[in-house]
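TL;DR need structure tokens for one chain.
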Amino acid sequence: MAERRRRLRHIESAGQHLLSLIDDVLDLSSLEGGELPFVAKPVPLRALVNDTLPQLEALAQRHGVTLHTGALVGVPMADEKRLRQVLLNLLSNAIKYNREGGEVHIGAEGDGDAVRLHITDTGVGMSAEQLEHAFEPFNRLGRENAGIEGTGIGLPIVKALVEHMGGSVEVHSRVGLGTRFEVRLPAAPPDATPTQDATPPPPAPLATGRAARLLYIEDNPVNVLIVKGLVALRANTTLHIATTGLGGVQQAVALDPDLVLVDIHLPDIDGFEVLRRLRALPQTARTVCVMLSANAMPDVIQRALRAGFAAYWTKPLDFARFQSGLDELLGG
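>> reply
TL;DR here they are.
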């Protein structure tokens, strides 16, 4: 049994790595083809960094690395989603290619008509030859067998994103001492006012004295079967299934569920449109919704959270985290 679990963990890890590789390739292809939209607006760096760092805490703890923030001065004109993706890529690399007990420092300052963001680590560093190839797609700079997960596409994506936002990225490194990435972006005009994303409505409290009603909107029968099995282990929770987005909206109005799980890709409308329609109806305007998807790209996750989803859970499901998430939203 233990050997079977070990093999299943390897299969799951390989599947997640392959999914990450596919997502990165699609993202890079979209960037090179000019298909990704960019919306430039003033982005306060301190708020963005403070919102991004919690997503990296588990990775930093796993690698024994400490994150430090210094002065974060400046408001660049940038696409907030894409700049967050740049941060996540650079910071995750700074953590993964660090050393036990290492550090990562992030700071920013004004630089004339630009804002310069820098991320410095105390990791393994790169040689002059490696620096020449740092931004080449699929080039992991000889670290393919180092036991560190990666696709070799993160830095090319960072470079393409920054350049699409009118900026530039530089890297300085010394073997054994660490690496410093500097991202330079145009500064927002002094009179520009940063825009704030709408705050999603707070979840309504779960009524006591009845079973929790859970609605899952998903057309994949395998995913439905898995969630049915997990929910069957829970006391006092009833599960309802909808296989289309429009059907899910109708069921939500009729059921008044305590929680709605929504897949992104549905046969008729996508998960974002499902949420938009639920929020537009008085019966479901405050219904708690969670997105379930195999797409683990940071910009998609942030888009879902900003749209109003209470959480974003990725597939393949981590069963323990799935149950603890339901405990948090529905009660144990």
